[in-house]
Design a protein that fits this description.
Blueprint (H helix, E strand, L loop, with lengths): L4 E5 L15 E12 L2 E15 L16 E8 L2 E9 L5 E9 L8 H15 L4 E7 L3 H9 L3 E6 L13 E7 L1
Parallel strand pairs: 6-7
Antiparallel strand pairs: 1-4, 2-3, 4-5, 5-6, 7-9, 8-9
Amino acid sequence: MQSKVKIVEMTIENIGNYDDKNQTFQVIGKLIPTYQNECWSFQEEIYEKSFETKYQEEYGFEAYIGNPDCIAFLYYLEDICLGQITLSTSVTQYASIDRLIISKSHIGNGIGTALLKRAKVWALEKEMKGFTLETQDVNLLACRFYSKNGFTIGSVDNLLYANSKYANEKAVFWYLKF
């Protein structure tokens, strides 16, 4: 028997189905981006000892419901919500991926890629020309995921977190043109 998968738009009724604000992620190393000849490339620095961390999660998913300029999708396996993606339009014609999070126990099972595919359909309906998002250089597993899914680095900001407890991290801005 095949498991039933569905991706649905977030509504007031299902808004609490995936809300893991305390989920950590594994830091195994960091991305070392390089800009040369008007092109970004990167290497990886793998840490001798990995560790778990988390970022303060933003609240306010209600803004993604019923708003023509943004949306959230939830990924279900049977009746269990295992992931979410939130997006918004922008004047740059790139749909911003504001959040993409998958249940820790299901990372690596294609859920993130499935959510990206559904998000692309929405972005094209909104006449967007691609995706943009920001992640930190120490979120190497996320950086690998975006690279594997065709995203390229568009810029790196070493000052965005300078006045926070993440002062040693760089913001990496990824883009995917459709």
